[in-house]
Amino acid sequence: MATTGKVVGVNGNLVSVEFEGDVLLNEVAYVVLQEKRLKSEVIRIKGKIADMQVFEIIKGVGIGDKVEFTGNMLSVALGPGLLRQIFDGLQNPLPQLAEKCGFFLDRGVYLDSISSEKKWELTPRAKTGDTVRRGDTLGTVPEGIFEHKVMVPFNLYSTYKVKSIADKGEYTVKQQIAELEDEDGNVIPVSMVFEWPVKKAVDVYKERLKPVDPMVSQIRIIDTLFPVALGGTYCIPGPFGAGKTVLQQLTSRYADVDIVIIAACGERAGEVVETLREFPELTDPKTGKSLMERTVIICNTSSMPVAAREASVYTAVTIAEYYRQMGLNVLLLADSTSRWAQAMREMSGRLEEIPGEEAFPAYLESVIATFYERAGIVENMDGSIGSVTIGGTVSPAGGNFEEPVTQATLKVVGAFHGLSRERSDARRYPAIHPLDSWSKYAGSVNADKADFARNALFRGDEVSQMMKVVGEEGTSNEDFIQYLKGEFLDSVYLQQNAFDKVDASTSKERQKYVFDKLLLIIMSNLALSDKDEARSFFNQLRQKFLDWNGSAMDTEEFRKTEAELMDMVTNKSSEPMSDLIERFEKKFAE
Amino acid sequence: MRKIYNRIEEIKGNVITVRAGGIKYGELAEITSAHGKSLAEVILLDGDKVSLQVFSGGRGISTGDEVRFLSRSMMVSFSDNLMGRIFDGSGNPRDNGPALEENLIEIGGPSVNPAMRIIPRNMIRTGIPMIDLFNSLVESQKLPIFSTSGEPYNELLARIAMQAEVDLIILGGCGLKYDDYLFFKEKLEEGGSLSRSIFFVHTASDPVVECLMVPDISLAVAEKFALNGKKVLVLISDMTNFADAMKEIAITMEQVPSNRGYPGDLYSQLASRYEKAVDFEGQGSITILAVTTMPGDDVTHPVPDNTGYITEGQFYLSNGRIEPFGSLSRLKQLVNDDTRDDHRSLMDGMIKLYASYKETLEKKSMGFRMSDWDDKLLKYGDLFENELMDLSVNIPLEKALDKGWEILADCFTPEETGMRTGLTDKYWPKQ
Ligand SMILES: Nc1ncnc2c1ncn2[C@@H]1O[C@H](COP(=O)(O)OP(=O)(O)O)[C@@H](O)[C@H]1O
Ligand SMILES: [Mg+2]
Hints:
The complex is a heterodimer. By secondary structure, chain A is α+β, with helices and mostly antiparallel strands. Chain A is built from 15 helices and 26 strands. In chain A, the strands form five sheets. In chain A, strands 8, 18, 19, 20, 21, 22, 23, 24, 25 and 26 form a ten-stranded mixed β-sheet that branches. In chain A, strands 1-2-5-4-3-6 form a six-stranded antiparallel barrel. In chain A, strands 12-11-9-14 form a four-stranded antiparallel β-sheet, with no helix packed on it. Chain A is globular and about 90 Å long. The mean pLDDT of chain A is about 95. Chain B is of the alpha/beta class. Chain B has three domains: about 5-75, Thrombin, subunit H (Beta Barrel); about 75-335, Rossmann fold (3-Layer(aba) Sandwich), CATH 3.40.50.12240; about 345-425, no CATH class. Chain B starts with a strand and ends with a helix. Chains A and B meet through strand 1, helix 1, helix 4, helix 6 and helix 13 of A and strand 5, strand 17, helix 6, helix 7 and helix 9 of B. Bound molecules: adenosine-5'-diphosphate and magnesium ion.
């Protein structure tokens, strides 16, 4: 019999329940109000009292209200039909909710995450008599542009014989498509959908591999200087307004991956709206289909219940892992992980746990580490390779990276894209700090070239610091040109205009091509007699380069602007262009 | 059934505790003391112990005072009769008009389904170049005015209110100085806007718990009007007082503070108010402008800091001007695309040059020799500050754009501006 209980305390969205019978940690329970049932999760058990976080507005709950426990941990439904969806943190589909309830998020309304009416064209892949284990493919259905594998549910831990399998044809996700018989002769009916507890990593694979191949984001400063690997992790800390969200929006559009899961976690609803209104209209150049076909949005924005916010990142990563099992590269973008950490802090405070730094719970670090550990590239049981890459923004209090969430995150991620207030104030977007940021992954651009550029930036910055002390007059022409070159590199390559059709994304090929030309310019010896001439030359050069950035590759304009640009360099170069090119090639010969 | 209790077990700050059964979280009670009646709201249930925050404060409450539970949560009357009226934080009249009891609506209702939101698309013109040109205000936007005390933030608020084309203005006063309250009243009266305004004003001398109600009441009323097709502008001054009121209650309730005494849920609390800004498709909209004074002029103080993460940008008021650095409208790119084709480039280009001007200014203050380029920048900075930044400048956007080009041409050659050739060819003023 299901366990029941009654409310004995209400403190914000923390409700204490006295119960009869057995209760599981992380079990889902419902507080029963006259007309509504409010979903909750058990987060602490002490004797006969279970403390639960309620995922809804708590107003109106009183002492003595009935509580029904479900016996199940907080889970998500996995099956075909997740793509293109917009869910809240508990996988409630928001557009369907709107159809039912209108403008507002009425509490206590829970709809099917995956439509139980829609039919899918199943092609069976397993045969009667086959031996199968969790994660093995029973059949496939087309889901948009992908072949969706219908797998043996991950929560069936034995070895099974396929006793029966459905014929090719159309089925809803709830219909039985196979019967599996375990070693003891128990027969388990299987449909296309099953549940998996969100806080448990999906562990169905042969082995975890090392993330090596770059995930091309089409953002120059990232791909060239601070690359991210498929299956890797990275974080974007930055003060408000520095450009974290815009950076993630760009990545969600242009990143070269199969599937993007956007977890809008505790920040503005308006930002998600931009994505969900624009994506259906945008075509993915890779597939020719709308970007929505490859996207899932988990949306638990700042004014939505805070406990569901805590759950939302887990919902997102579980869905990501599910598609990874199909041999796909999945990118999870979480904005912002700080809001998730704050949700934990709010609950921890209500539970009166001993607070750590800035009142965050003592387990903050391990929880963050465990979350990022769910990224990875794996070889699945069938030999296919799939990956989950995780990129999380961090919103440090006061913009100070010394705070607990940033520090805990930096310990575990593979790349750090730190946004700086100075750069965003100066409209140097994306405001990733080129000297403070780092990446442990290899990029698609030759490492020597990237180092050379980094060096030029460093030198430029050194001169600029020095000039602050000795002034321009105390700086040699040579140093001054170094400074101008650093600035030039920054403004024409590291900065990228998100709102320009062409400049917003730079393909890997274009990056390689343009970067070579840029390095030629940096390497050139220029005959510039004084500082005014030098400044004016670089101003003109910059303008030409920006014009070049704005023209699509393989157009006449692109070639023309490039020729003009290189002419400008040739005219001021103290050596023939051919010599410069020779120097360049020698320097970067393999 | 009305539940009446006559035994208050604990009085601590503005929070009282009674033993009672069948009480719901968020329920209202009425407390009758020697000083009159006050509302109170249930904020904690522990067995039969019920804690309530008392709107008029704990002072003067006796353990023997009557506590009558009302079996409902906080509500406010909603009708066209609200127009032109002034109320306090509990919704009682502050003018001499009648109390309103009809058509009660809930406050602090659920948030809007993100899937029902639309992309903001209408610019709200203010005639202030630092807003229209550099950080356009957009219908349904939520924006704070970050300000040091002593800055003319209420003047700025009033000026935007008068100039903005909206149907209805709701002013929420949180700890408003009495003079400032009168100032708003006068200003709106002068501009003939009072009849399309509603005030919910908590002044600095009113009980602090009432301050907590102001944003919720104002926004609940705004929401209803918006659902009835009205374009509503909600002005709040000052959200820092609201946050401080929350801090006070949290400390009374012995909650673990997260940062400088503020409760750990400060972010969520502020967000649930600001996120009420919305454009209801086919109906009206809510735009929120809220003053946030920065204690110690410190933008990293928890209140402005959390606010900045929630709102869609901020206007940073300092030295009587809206500073280009620190100010931001995150929604500007949604509207500045189809104003004029030079809008965006001019906006970015002029700010980049202004940043260089600031660097030069620094160099100059350190006594370095000024190059030709520095001299150009110095001239530019002066012109920019006087002809565009000054708050007294009141010109339409198109004039401001033209002015921008004039200033650039006065100081630089086209290629020195870093602007693309196509634009300079088109807009560079011909002598
Ligand atoms: N790459 C970019 N290009 C141009 N503008 C940008 C870029 N990144 C950010 N911005 C500007 O900065 C604003 C704030 O960026 P946003 O990503 O929302 O900041 P955050 O998420 O860090 O608070 C944007 O609305 C936009 O005006
Ligand atoms: Mg953001």
